[in-house]
UniProtKB/TrEMBL annotation:
Designated name of the protein: SMI1/KNR4 family protein
Organism: Streptacidiphilus fuscans
């Protein structure tokens, strides 16, 4: 029943204890075939611990997805919700920019997030090109450039601050090659 490649720390015994504490009905757990069918249908793989949990018993009640007989549109919506939330934050809340400027997100890593997760989804707006350019320069930097790498960190932060002062979401750009 358990996947031999599993790195799960969850055991059937521990899952059973957790399931027994839930105030909902617990149905027979999902079989290997049912798990595989859900993963194939929706294009993802359950984490090992989650797989063990769902094979030990299937919570059935308000708030719990019905992986066995649930409405496919409802299940798809549940799976898309986290991604949609991030896209909303990027598109409407300057989330990553605020974190970069505030110092709680490393400027380079924040630049990468915007570049790889947000830029295409926002239609590759020209206004983001400088931030993406500084992020690329940070990534490509070598000592032979004769300036400290931190120069590009400062430029990413400055550009993020500038973007926070501008209109959001930015208008779509036309440059498809950057």
């Amino acid at each position: 029943m358990a996947d031999p490649r599993s790195t799960a720390s969850m055991t059937y015994e521990r899952a059973g204890v957790l399931l027994s504490r839930l105030p909902v009905r617990i149905d027979l757990g999902l079989s290997d075939a049912e798990i595989a069918a859900v993963e194939e249908r929706f294009g993802f793989r359950f984490a090992d611990d989650h797989r063990v949990f769902l094979q030990a018993g299937l919570p059935a009640g308000p708030g719990w997805p019905d992986w066995r007989n649930g409405d496919p549109e409802d299940l798809r919506g549940r799976l898309d919700w986290p991604r949609e939330g991030v896209l909303f934050d990027v598109g409407h809340g300057f989330w990553w920019l605020r974190l970069i400027v505030g110092g709680s997100l490393n400027a380079y890593r924040g630049g990468l997030l915007i570049w790889h997760e947000g830029w295409d989804l926002l239609g590759r707006p020209d206004v983001l090109q400088p931030l993406i350019g500084w992020t690329s320069e940070y990534e490509d930097w070598t000592e032979s450039w004769g300036m400290p790498r931190e120069t590009f960190t400062e430029r990413i932060i400055t550009e993020a601050r500038s973007l926070l002062d501008g209109p959001w979401p930015p208008t779509k750009g036309t440059n498809e090659n950057v």
